[in-house]
């Protein structure tokens, strides 16, 4: 059930995510709920950050948005607030909404880095250029913004395609040689032709076990998990990071399935 308590908990997770890139301790940032926030300079507010400490206040309007459309807007706003707090600690932003456009660009850039969709924003040419500058300064990558069509939603997602130098840099970071993780069963072991699995569930459980073992021993996957983002070098855009583990598990599944089929055929 979506209520102020659950929303503040989800918001804390989004702040922690942003703090990973901002080199801040998320435990020093408090999030509270207030039914209504006063307008600031005539503008309605769905969140704010207190002047006297690093406390983010979430309004009922934002909670209602999450009920209606999900938590994408919540994530977007928490990235903005975390960036504001980071800049204020550096002495660059004294008041909430000061340099808001810079914080918005940072939030958009971080969401694009993580392969996420941007909630309800149209990016004009100037904003795209500004986002790419922020993307370069914050995350060290250069590229271009493009639209990726989404047939199911009858729309498109904004994505970033890296240039050749940045793709090469990412490739050097993650594309290292990994050892073969397939396993060959010894004669008489459970799963062989002489001693087959009792049912399909038992076979699936076995495959899941060795897939998890392979993942735990995969240092490249652990490094990618620490990065918190994943760039698909085949499709040339950022994707949600957990998709990388899914792809690696699928590869391992194919390896082990071939091994089992080979064993069963002899």
Description:
There is one protein chain. The protein is of the alpha+beta class. It has two domains: 4-162, Metalloproteases ("zincins"), catalytic domain (Zincin-like, 2-Layer Sandwich), CATH 3.30.2010.10; 165-264, no CATH class. It is 51% helix and 13% strand. It is built from nine helices and seven strands; from the N terminus they run H-E-E-E-H-H-H-H-E-E-H-H-H-E-E-H. It has helices spanning 4-22, 60-69, 72-89, 100-113, 125-139, 164-174, 200-216, 219-227, 242-264; strands at residues 30-34, 47-49, 55-59, 143-150, 155-162, 230-232, 237-239. The strands form three sheets. It has a three-stranded mixed sheet with strand order 1-3-2. A hairpin with a 5-residue loop joins strand 2 (47-49) and strand 3 (55-59). The protein is globular. It starts with a helix and ends with a helix. The relative contact order is 0.09. The model is unreliable at 243-254 and 260-266 (pLDDT under 50).
**Assembly status:** single chain
Low-pLDDT residue intervals, each spanning 5 or more residues? 243-254, 260-266
How much of the residues is beta strand, in percent? Answer: 5-15%
- The third-level CATH topology of the largest domain is Zincin-like
Instruction: State the major sheet.
Output: 3 strands, mixed
Rg estimate, integer Å: 23 Å
H/I helix tally: 9
- Which descriptor suits the 3D outline? globular
Mean pLDDT: 84
**Full CATH superfamily name of the largest domain:** Metalloproteases ("zincins"), catalytic domain
H and E string: HEEEHHHHEEHHHEEH
What is the class of the largest domain in the CATH system?
A: Alpha Beta
E-strand count: 7
Domain module count: 2
Give the termini separation: 54 Å
Strand numbers in spatial order across the main sheet:
1-3-2
Known CATH architecture of the largest domain: 2-Layer Sandwich
Q: Tell me the helix content.
A: 40-55%
């Amino acid at each position: 059930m979506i209520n102020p308590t659950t929303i503040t908990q989800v918001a804390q997770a989004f702040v922690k995510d942003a703090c990973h890139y901002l080199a801040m301790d998320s435990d020093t940032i408090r999030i509270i709920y207030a039914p209504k926030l006063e307008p600031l300079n005539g503008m309605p507010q769905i969140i704010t950050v207190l002047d006297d400490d690093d406390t983010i206040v979430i309004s009922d309007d934002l909670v209602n948005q999450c009920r209606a459309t999900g938590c994408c807007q919540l994530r977007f706003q928490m990235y903005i607030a975390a960036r504001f707090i980071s800049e204020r600690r550096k002495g660059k932003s004294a008041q909430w909404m000061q340099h808001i456009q810079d914080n918005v660009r940072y939030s958009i850039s971080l969401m694009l880095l993580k392969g996420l969709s941007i909630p309800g924003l149209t990016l004009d040419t100037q904003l795209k250029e500004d986002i790419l500058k922020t993307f370069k300064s914050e995350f060290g990558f250069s590229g271009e913004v493009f639209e990726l069509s989404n047939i199911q939603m009858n729309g498109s997602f904004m994505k970033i395609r890296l240039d050749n130098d940045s793709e090469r840099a990412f490739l050097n970071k993650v594309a290292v040689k990994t050892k073969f993780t397939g396993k060959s069963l010894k004669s008489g072991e459970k799963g062989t032709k002489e001693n087959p699995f009792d049912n399909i569930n038992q076979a699936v459980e076995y495959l899941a076990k060795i897939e998890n073992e392979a993942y735990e021993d995969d240092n490249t996957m652990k490094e990618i998990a620490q990065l918190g983002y994943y760039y698909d070098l085949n499709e040339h855009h950022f994707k949600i990071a957990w998709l990388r583990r899914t792809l690696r598990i699928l590869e391992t599944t194919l390896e082990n399935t071939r091994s089992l089929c080979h064993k069963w055929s002899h």
